[in-house]
Design goal:
Rossmann fold, alpha/beta, two-stranded antiparallel sheet
């Protein structure tokens, strides 16, 4: 203690070196910008494009809310990825004046969605239900990749809605935001040669689709153009040596569908089933595990609904199915034109409305 009665201590004063903070900020900005541009160019070089909006529960919720608001043309498409990829909404609009709401989801069984529409007293439209035999008539998948989506469109929070809109804005300008080509996802796509008896497992499919507004979805060009990606997608759909489907599961599927169709028709709506093309080992496996007589034919008999099976129409056969499960973009246009033409002619719900429109 000093004579003045106050404590004294040694204080180390550290001088902060002068820094060119503005210059440092500009340097960081330029480095980040250069990195983003380089990554964007790299992703575009492998086939990604700006305007590919991806897909998620949030995308689906936007379309589902259109139905709740009555903002649609009375036609809804549901099922898994085949009817999603193989339906061209512009062709539907051109041929019928009606643009469907696209609610099909990759990796999902359509039956929970069919049941949900049957329970909706306000739905009196045309429900187009795609049928992939091993998915529709089985109990193994359910809603699958999009668990919780049937309630998400009602429960989505304001922050989630804002985040979705922000993501859409950025995706319209940047290709590298594709969820299938994040850095971690790219690790799984490194094409390494096998070492001896070691074979790399194919656990999941990589990018297969490209999505634009209204969830208009196409098979990604990369699948059509890149043999390695195409072969990986084919292997991801396997194995293709499954046993015949369980008879009890088929019966449950047909009963659920029949109950749903009955409820929708009672309100003035209609349901049609569409079997899109498949090819290669996938198609051969479907013939073995889900024979038409036990599945498709039984479904139409028990529901009394109209159905379109690509096998029955020359214009729907011989189309390009690059990875055995989804049509190429050009073939999807041909298939849509063909199946909508049949619906317009043979389904009274649609044909009567088209006649009324022409006579107006």
């Amino acid at each position: 203690m000093s004579n003045s009665g106050k404590w004294s201590e040694d204080v180390t004063v550290r001088e902060i070196p002068k820094a060119r903070l503005v210059a440092m900020g500009w340097l960081v900005f330029l480095l980040v910008t250069a990195g983003v541009i380089a990554w964007e160019l790299q992703m575009r070089s492998i086939g990604l494009v700006a305007g590919d909006l991806d897909d998620s529960k949030a995308h689906w919720a936007v379309e589902r809310r259109k139905i709740a608001a009555g903002d649609y043309d009375d036609v809804v498409v549901i099922r898994s990825s085949r009817i999603l990829f193989d339906t061209n909404l512009n062709v539907w609009k051109e041929m019928t004046g009606r643009r469907p709401i696209q609610l099909a989801l990759a990796g999902t069984n359509p039956r929970p969605f069919l049941t949900d529409f049957a329970a909706n007293p306000d739905f009196k439209g045309l429900l187009v239900v795609g049928v992939t035999p091993d998915i529709f008539f089985g109990d193994w998948l359910g809603i699958g990749l999009f668990a919780g989506v049937l309630d998400y469109w009602k429960d989505q929070s304001p922050s989630e809605r804002f985040g979705h809109q922000a993501g859409l804005f950025l995706s319209r300008h940047l290709a590298f935001l594709d969820s299938s080509y994040t850095l971690t996802a790219l690790v799984d796509q490194v094409n390494l040669p096998n070492r001896g008896e070691i074979v790399r497992p194919y656990l999941d499919v990589w990018k297969v689709w490209e999505t634009t507004d209204d969830r208009q979805t196409f098979l990604w060009r990369g699948i059509e153009d890149n043999e390695h990606l195409r072969e990986h997608a084919r292997l991801a759909w396997g194995p293709f040596a499954g046993k015949p489907m369980d008879e009890a599961a088929i019966a449950r599927a047909c009963k659920e569908a029949a109950d749903a169709v009955k409820k929708i028709r009672a309100r003035g709506g209609e349901v049609v089933f569409v079997r899109s093309p498949s090819a290669g080992l996938y198609y051969e496996n479907e013939l073995h595990s889900a024979p038409r007589a036990r599945t498709w034919d039984r479904l139409l008999k028990e529901t009394g609904a109209f159905g379109i099976n690509f096998e029955d129409y020359p214009g729907m056969r011989g189309l390009d199915v690059p990875e055995w499960s989804h049509l190429s973009r050009e073939s999807a246009v041909k298939f849509t034109r063909a199946y909508v033409g049949v619906l317009a002619q043979d389904v009274p719900w649609l044909s009567s409305r088209l006649r009324a429109k022409d006579g107006a």
